[in-house]
Specification:
- The strands form 2 sheets. This protein has a two-stranded antiparallel ribbon. Strands 2-3 form a two-stranded antiparallel sheet.
- It has a single domain, classed as Orthogonal Bundle (Transferase(Phosphotransferase), domain 1), CATH 1.10.510.
- A hairpin with a 5-residue loop joins strand 2 and strand 3.
- It is 28% helix and 13% strand.
- 0% of the residues are buried.
- With 76 residues, it is of the alpha+beta class.
- It is globular, with a radius of gyration of 13 Å.
Length: 76
């Protein structure tokens, strides 16, 4: 389990370094190959943002909403 979690953290961290926010993280969008390495799929809701900017768009699956989206605060 730690192996998968670390891969996911590294992948999301890489996207953030490229100023991409991935806004549809859920188990259905994480695939495993035959060696146990993950691939993140479905970038339809991903968004490029400038450093320090916030986005207020409401998107994603209702079952996986972040606290920021429920409260209505901007998120990055």
């Amino acid at each position: 389990m730690k192996f998968y979690a670390l891969q996911l953290i590294l992948a999301i961290g890489y996207l953030h370094k490229k100023n991409i926010i991935y806004r549809d993280l859920k188990s259905e969008n994480i695939l495993l190959d035959e060696f146990g390495y993950i691939s993140i799929t479905d970038y339809g809701l991903a968004k490029f943002i400038k450093k320090g900017d916030l986005t207020n768009s409401f998107c994603g699956s209702p079952e996986y909403l972040s606290p920021e989206m429920i409260i209505g605060n901007g998120h990055n």
